[in-house]
Amino acid sequence: LVQPVESGGGLVQPGGSLRLSCTAPGFTSNRCGMAWYRQAAGERREWVSDISSDGYTGYADSVKGRFTISQDKAKDTVYLQMNMLKPEDTAMYSCQTLWPCGSNWGQGTQVTVSS
User: For a tag site, which of 2, 33, 55, 61 has the least CB within 10 Å?
Assistant: First the structure.
């Protein structure tokens, strides 16, 4: 079981940056893909970004040009660099393993964008 664990959330002012990490032992050796999702209070969970083992990436329109997903295979870690943050980016951010590693979710990390 490739189980992801998120970190890096916190409180940041509008226009600021944060980098989230998703570490999953076995992520590299199993050639997993990984996705980031977020869920704001009272809202449905929405897809943010994903990356395949080969490095192909995808982004939701709402974050395109501001967020960057990347991976460090030596550390079994996927990052989500978030720049130009807006109050509407406030949410619990979670990562999910993708094919061929099944669908395993982390506990999430809270991001709050507020002045």
Answer: 61
